[in-house]
Request: fold
Amino acid sequence: MGKGFGNSKKEQFQQNRNTEFYFFLKEASQASYKNIRRPELVYPFLKANLNKLNYKFIKYFQQWLPNTLSKVDRKHFI
Reply:
């Protein structure tokens, strides 16, 4: 095994994990928005994805949120 091979695999795993978190966050946001007056309709989705609501997701979200908000045009803020 060559030097750096393990890092490449680790980086690929992290990229896959971030993609998984991104799509989960997108789906959760859409479900929440569509059911803003009926949050009980979102609970089954969250329950089915409890495995994604962990420390690694929190770390991803803490990086994703400021990066995303910094790219939003301030005219779109309410």
In short: The two ends are 54 Å apart (CA to CA). Residues 28 and 72 are 20 Å apart (CA to CA). The helical segments are 5-34, 43-48, 55-69. The chain has a mean pLDDT of 86.
